[in-house]
Each structure stands twice: as C-alpha cells, then as structure tokens.
Design a protein that fits this description.
The complex is a heterodimer.
Chain A (H helix, E strand, L loop, with lengths): L1 H11 L4 H17 L6 H26 L7 H18 L7 H29 L3 H20 L3 E3 L6 H5 L1 E2 L2 E2 H19 L1 H11 L1 H6 L4 H27 L1 E3 L7 H10 L11 H21 L3 H33 L1
Antiparallel strand pairs in A: 1-4, 2-3
Helix pairs in contact in A: 2-13, 3-8, 3-11, 3-12, 3-13, 4-5, 4-6, 4-11, 5-6, 5-11, 8-9, 9-11, 12-13, 12-14, 13-14
Chain B lengths: L1 H6 L1 H20 L6 H26 L7 H18 L5 H25 L4 H20 L9 H4 L3 E6 L5 E5 H19 L1 H11 L1 H6 L4 H27 L10 H11 L11 H20 L7 H17 L2 H4 L1 H4 L5
The chains are: A mainly alpha, B mainly alpha.
C-alpha cells in the first residue's frame, strides 16, 4: 500500500502540490458558492476555452524550461493563422477544398517554425537574452501582421473549418482533443527523448551542459522551433474558433501563459517543471474563470483573481519551505 | 578616449547608429533635420523616457518589472478620481497624489518580492494581472474625458518662432522628463544608495555579506519605478487629455525593449541613464523618420522590431570585431 502511495507521489512530483491544492480549493469554494458549478455545462465551457490558452502555454513552456522565455507566442500564432487564411482565400475562399486546407496548415507550421528558428539561432549563437530576442520578434511580427492586414480581420473560410473550432467527436470538443494530444506529445518529448533531457540540462546549467559534450546550440534552436510550431497549432485552432484571423487575437493571453507555467510549478530560471502540473494549473485557471462567471463577475475580475492565485500559491510555497526548514533545524 | 569608448561601448554604438540614421533621414526627408522636429521627438518620447529611467533602476538592482505601465494606468484613474473629490487641485497636488500612489504600488511589488522571496518576474506578472483585472473590473473599461482644466491645458514653457515660420516649443512633459532623468542620474551615480544598487544587482549575496540592506534595496528600486510610473501616468493623461484604462497596456514591453537596447542587462548590475535615454530615442527617431518618409504607419513596428533584433545580434557579437580601430590594443 505504502509503495503504491510512494509511486503515485513520485509520479505526481512535488510540482503537483500547488496546482493540485488549488484545484481542490476551486472545486470546493465554487461547489459551495454556486449549485450549478459542478455541472456538465461548466466543464463543457471549460473544455472549449481551455485549448486556446493551453496550446499557447505549451509553446511558452519549452523555452521557460531552458531558462528563457518566448514573448512572441501570440503573434507567431496570429501570423501562422494569417498564413492559413491567406492560402485559403487565394484558393477559392469559401469553396476551398480539404487539400488546400492541409497545404495551408503545413505552410502555417513552416511560418511558425521559421519564427522559432530565427529566435533560436540569435539566442544560441549570440547569447543575447531570450526575453529581448523574443520581444523584438514579437514587435516585428505584430508590425508585419498589422502591415499585411491593415489592422482588419480576414474571414470567409470553407464550412469544414468551423467544426475544428467548435465541433465535438463523441462528446469531446475537437480543440480539446488536439490540445490533449499536444499535451501528451510534450509529456513524451520532455520525459522520454534526448531533446527533452537536454532541455532540462540547459535550464539547470548551460555551461556544464555544453562542456559535457551536448550540442546546446542545436537543442536551443530546436526548442524554439518546436515552440513556434506549437504556436502555429494554436493559431489554426484560433482561426477555426473565431472563424476569422485578426492580429492581436489572444494578445491578452501572453502573460497569462507565463502565469500558468509558474502556477504549474515550473522554475522561472528553468531546469525544473513538468507538463502535467501545468495542465492542471490551466484547468484551475479556466474553472476559476467559469466559476466567477457563474457568480456574475466578468472576465476582468477573473484575470485579477488569477494574479491573486499565483501570489497565493507562491506565498504558500514560501510558508511550506519555512516550516520544512524549522522542522529540519529542530530535528538536528 | 579609447578607454572611454570601450567602457561605454553600448552608448557609443547607439549614438553612432542614431547619427547614421539621422544623417540618412536628413537627406531623405525635408523636415527631419529641424529644431522643430527635434522638439516634437522629445515631446512624444517624454513619457516613455520617464518610464524607462524608472525601469532602469529596477534592472540595475537585478529585478524586472512587468506591471509598471498598468500601475501607471491605475494611478491615472485613481488620481483623477481623488482630484474630483478634493475639488480640482493643481499640478502640485496632482503630482503628489500620483507620485505617492505610484510609490505605494511599487512598494507592494517590493513587499511581495522581499518578504515572500518571490522572483520579481513572477511577482510582477501577478500584480500586472491583479492591477489590470481590477482596474477594468471597477471602471468597466469606461474612459474619463472630463479632466480638470489645469490637467488638460497645454503648458508651454518656452516657445520660439523659427525663421521658416515653424514654432519650436518645450512643454511641461519635457521639463518633467528632464527632472526625472536628472534625479535618476543623481540617484544611481552620485549617491551611496546608487552604488549599493549596482552592487546588489551584480551579486546579491556578496552585497548582503558586505552589509547592504537587501530589503531597502528592493523597496528603493521598485519604489523609484513606482514613483516614475505615477508621474509618467499623470503626464500621459496630460499629454493625451484623457484617461483610457487600457491605453498603457502593452507599453511595458516596448519600454523594456528600449531600456535593454540601451545597455541595461537583464540580471542586474549594468546600465546607464544615458544609454537608456538613447535607447528610447533611437526607437522614436526611427518611427519619426519612417513617418516623415511616408512609410505606412502599419509598417513602423515591423521595421522597429527588425532593427532591435539586428541591434541585439550585432551588439552581442563583440563590438571590437566589427570596429577594428577600437579593438586594436585589447590584445584579444
């Protein structure tokens, strides 16, 4: 019995404590506050809202694990979505076929990857700070998008695009399926592959990793490229959900993705953090937003509460470390 | 001279880039090379420079702050409301209220960072969401156009008609900016506190063992940025003649890019007021020049982003290697 508990404990890891506690607390508080909270409708709306923020958070996660940050995620997603929209519009608009859509998606992936490659190369070869590199990439992509669209939105897609954004298969929303596949993909990538191992190593100590014979530059470029591809997936889902592309869609998610990563126990300096706790943290954030919505508050209050939640978890973590320290001291 | 260039490499290369861009613009456009345009530039950049010198102090102390622009919005809104209560007020009471509110919000960040040992980026992303969420929640996104007369009246401190009939003028924002820049310069180069800030940013543990009060450093750095954010917020309301709750949203990243472009290091211990001001000016001059050249405003950000990206790439690949004359004699 204890070994099973131990195994569950190691599988969940210490990062799980914060988001896990928050998850239970949110369920309890809103379950008591509002009778409709623990219903299929709430979880249905969460299931539809989660993927947008979630995919962008996955794109943010990899760079944070290497000790960096990718501030260009939302605009990379916009530009990728714009690429797909452009391909669809140039090839028949509403009448475009599935083949054109697939070509458009591939081009969108390539555009996302290209933005990642450029950032990765600059970060890996000049040792410039990732915040600054991705920030200038963000400003560039925002400008590029505004220049191409003149600030307007592009719409008019074939009918089969819509269901990707708001259809369901066997009762599970399509975007959620895409998101969960991506979560599992990231989980496997970080836990089972050489690149995942290198990502953690680089985040812990770049110099030591370099001297131990790992090609850190290649790993960094790959990490940012994958981050860019994940942005492209987010961009395609956003295109399907809103049935339009507009530069600035999802801009307000930028700092919330960082918040979700930290809430999921990811170390701000990199090296530590896992995908599943981040996923739970995202569910907590969306549940909070839905719960507040049920009570009658709006999205902006939810944003404020998300911030308060992060501060609260950080303070609890500090209290826990103090208690642990005092126990250790008394024991010695 | 050579050693001066080597110790101030960033400032000199920024200055060189500004001179090159200005020279090109003077020949390419009819209006760039005029005193009137130079003063316009200063008027436009005033608020960003006020924010930038505040952020510089936090960066020197090894922190980062994402929340200051949103804090400035909160200060604007609250200041105007408080001014309404006390029946009008004037510049002195306005600046006092805005300044102290700003310091208060800055100290809240410092409190979270110092008391609970939360990393500054995590703490300020939380407060960013808290400030912005609460501001939008309580104001419902409604702007205030009915400001006191003294706040919206343009204050012209100096005006002069040029031979060609254009007017040059120095307005209040420029004066406030000059005072803020001078005060920050005094603080970080001419006081013991300033030297302690650099030491603390460079090596917090070393500074602590040396007897520097770490808590005081955090409160001074974030309080100073809060003060600048408060003053900048009020000046922005004066300049725009309105208070829009989300007008400054997103400004934090633009200012951060400019400050780091000016040589401040993310990670602390490095940066100068001159470099910081030049960083902001470089971006403003580029935008202004593109405007005068008749480039579509939609393309501004794209070009500015590309310039920053190139600047980072170049500035991190050994200036000496690019400038053989300066590099001679270093022996490397």
């Amino acid at each position: 019995m204890t070994t099973i508990l131990e195994r569950v404990k190691t599988a969940l890891g210490p990062e799980m404590a914060g988001p896990g506690l928050a998850f239970v607390a949110v369920l309890l508080v809103f379950g008591i506050a509002s009778p409709q909270f623990l219903s299929a409708a709430t979880f249905g709306s969460v299931a539809f809202q989660l993927p947008e923020l979630g995919l962008l958070t996955l794109a943010m996660l990899l760079p944070i694990l290497t000790g960096g940050l990718n501030l260009a995620i939302t605009f990379t997603a916009n530009i990728s979505g714009l690429t797909l929209a452009w391909v669809l519009r140039e090839n028949g608009g509403v009448d475009a076929g599935v083949g054109i859509f697939i070509v458009g998606c591939l081009l969108a992936f390539m555009v996302g990857a290209a933005s990642g490659v450029v950032m990765g190369l600059v970060i890996a070869f000049t040792r410039a700070h990732p915040i600054l590199v991705s920030l200038s990439m963000m400003i560039f992509l925002r400008g590029l998008g505004e220049f191409l669209t003149r600030g307007g939105d592009i719409s008019g897609f074939p009918a089969f695009v819509g269901p990707i954004g708001h259809g369901s298969i066997a009762g599970i929303p399509v975007p959620l399926i895409v998101f969960i596949v991506c979560v599992l993909g990231w989980h496997v990538l970080l836990g089972r592959t050489k690149l995942g191992f290198n990502t953690y190593m680089i985040g812990s100590n770049l110099e030591a990793t370099h001297y131990s014979g790992i090609n850190t530059r290649k790993a960094i470029v790959l990490v940012y490229t994958l981050s860019g591809v994940m942005c492209a997936i987010a961009g395609i889902i956003m295109l399907a959900r809103f049935n339009s592309v507009r530069i600035g869609h999802g801009e307000s998610y930028l700092l919330i993705t960082v918040l979700a990563c930290f809430l999921g126990g990811v170390n701000p300096f990199g090296g530590f953090g896992r995908v599943i706790p981040v996923f739970v943290a995202l569910v907590v954030l969306q549940l909070l937003s839905s719960g507040l919505n049920l009570i009658g508050a709006n999205q902006h209050l939810a944003t404020a509460v998300w911030g308060i939640l992060l501060v609260g978890v950080m303070i609890l973590r500090w209290v826990a470390s103090r208690i642990k320290m005092s126990i250790v001291r008394r024991g010695s | 001279m050579r050693s001066l260039i080597r110790t101030h490499a960033t400032e000199f290369s920024l200055l060189a880039v500004i001179v090159v861009i200005s020279t090109v613009l003077s020949f390419a456009t009819a209006n760039f090379f005029s005193l009137g345009n130079a003063f316009d530039l200063l008027n436009i950049s005033a608020v960003n420079i006020i924010f930038a010198v505040g952020l510089l102090v936090v960066l020197i102390a090894g922190g980062i702050d994402i929340s200051f622009a949103v804090a400035a919005s909160v200060v604007q809104y609250c200041t105007v409301i408080v001014l309404g209560w006390i029946g009008g007020g004037g510049w002195v009471s306005g600046l006092l209220i805005a300044g102290s509110l700003g310091v208060l919000l800055g100290c809240l960040n410092a409190f979270l960072i110092h008391r609970f040992r939360i990393i500054s980026i995590v703490a300020t992303i939380s407060t960013f969401n808290i400030y912005f969420g609460l501001l939008m929640f309580f104001t419902r996104g409604v702007s205030i156009y009915d400001l006191p007369d003294w706040l919206t009246d343009r204050v012209i401190l100096f005006e002069h008609e040029m031979p060609d009939g254009t007017w040059i003028e120095i307005t209040l924002p420029v004066l406030v900016m000059a005072i803020c820049v001078a005060a920050t310069w005094m603080l970080i180069t001419r006081t013991t506190v300033g030297r302690q800030l650099y030491a603390f940013g460079d090596n917090p543990e070393g500074a602590r063992r040396f007897g520097i009060n770490i808590g005081a450093m955090q409160f001074i750095a974030f309080g100073w940025l809060g003060l600048m954010a408060g003053i900048g917020g009020l000046i922005q309301a004066h300049y725009a003649q309105e208070v829009v709750p989300n007008a400054l949203y997103g400004r934090e990243l633009d200012v951060l890019a400019a400050v780091v472009l000016g040589g401040a290091r993310l990670g602390g211990g490095k940066g100068s007021v001159l470099g910081c001001v030049l960083g902001v000016l470089l971006i403003s001059i580029t935008q202004n020049g593109l405007n005068l050249m008749g480039v579509s405003p939609f393309a501004f950000k794209m070009i500015v982003g590309a310039i920053i990206l190139v600047a980072i790439t170049l500035s991190n690949t050994r200036i000496e290697r690019l400038l053989p004359l300066v590099g001679r004699g270093t022996g490397r």
